[in-house]
């Protein structure tokens, strides 16, 4: 459903917080949103931007995806996996809410773009999805944070050798882009996924929840019809310093020379709602991590009987995973570790546990490690692997893939061991109403 329909639902369910005090886009709004994290918050009054409202926190709990995609919470991961495997091409409509207001005289200072932290390089758009066309593979959709440079230009963080970067390498001149802000959770989730390059992420979004598109006005790209704001423009063959910026790991990402995007046209809905996503916050973390769970699950399932996979918040929702297997043989733990890295290339540490361990409870995972793991046999170390650019402890050389060490912890009961030795004893159930408790 659209962002607005979701906000109506969240108001109905009592989840939505509305903020009536005017707030400033420089630091204040980010600080208030952070203090209220975990709930969708609608800021009804923005200092210096009387025509705008800002929403934050719409992806800060898995429950909000379940509401927005209209699927029960336990079915969320299978629904994601299904949309990934069977995308549905989205329909094109003639006219759309996202083009209710058309602004040719572009001035990016008219948008309520946040300055999140004093250490950041400046005002950043962090919730936007960028749509491009690859001459070989077709449409691509990806997040790219945008540092506002002046009235018409941003510096965009475009990670090397992924969809947008690869599409840029195949054209001589500028690459047309459509930047969408204030899109549905289906679109946000689809943009976070990294399917094979020929998969259209907007078709994945449409399989998650119907997502009609409309053609842009200055180029041949198409955008979600119910987006709040669309910036049509071009990625130039010029670069500018981008960063520092507090990223997913809540540490400062470095300054790099990054491509400039020039905006030609702005369209938006009447009474527009800007989506502010807090870098390093819950929305950022859930959007990054959750789409990797079905891909890890699928890979592990090819080599062992996988019963669950979770990307854990303590690992910045990106670098750590716990995988649950129903062990069928002595090598299953090791195989599951290797497969998990195939399912998520940036994964650094992975714990494999048995089905009696709740993978959503860090204390239970630690218990399995404490009682079932021996480092000389069950620790698998991989040296000098391709790793995440977000991990400050990795090795980062400009223009090259980051490198890291990886480790897998097989915390399953050793094959052939006396199983009873490893199982938790269980106290019997009691009906406390039969007892006088003071
Ligand atoms: C909230 C959020 C912010 C992100 N910011 C960036 C970014 O600034 N630059 C980037 O290249 N990728 C960013 N990503 C990751 C891309 O969206 C991700 O790499 C994408 O799934 C890769 O898809 P592709 O290979 O199809 O382009 C971000 C992801 C999320 C969820």
Question: Could you describe the 3D structure shown?
Answer:
With 438 residues, the chain is an alpha+beta fold. The chain has 2 domains: 3-286, Pnp Oxidase, Chain A, CATH 2.30.110.10; 291-417, UbiD C-terminal domain-like (3-Layer(aba) Sandwich). The chain is built from 12 helices and 23 strands. Strands 5, 6, 7, 8, 9, 10, 11, 14 and 17 form a 9-stranded antiparallel β-sheet that branches. Helix 2 (28-35) links the parallel strand 1 (17-19) and strand 2. Helix 4 (76-85) packs across helix 7 (201-208), helix 6 (185-192) packs across helix 7 and helix 9 runs antiparallel to helix 10. The N and C termini lie far apart (49 Å). The mean pLDDT is 96.
Question: How would the blueprint of this fold be written?
Answer:
Elements: H1 3-12, E1 17-19, H2 28-35, E2 41-43, E3 53-56, H3 62-69, H4 76-85, E4 92-93, E5 101-103, E6 124-125, E7 129-134, E8 138-143, E9 146-148, E10 153-156, H5 163-169, E11 175-181, H6 185-192, H7 201-208, E12 213-215, E13 222-224, E14 229-242, E15 245-246, E16 252-253, E17 256-268, E18 273-275, H8 282-289, H9 292-303, E19 305-311, E20 320-326, H10 332-343, E21 349-353, H11 362-372, H12 375-378, E22 379-386, E23 403-410
Parallel strand pairs: 1-2, 3-18, 4-12, 20-21, 21-23
Antiparallel strand pairs: 2-3, 5-17, 6-9, 7-8, 7-11, 9-10, 10-17, 11-14, 12-13, 14-17, 15-16, 19-20, 22-23
Residues 140, 142-145, 157-159, 162-164, 191-194, 277, 284, 287-288 line the site of flavin mononucleotide.
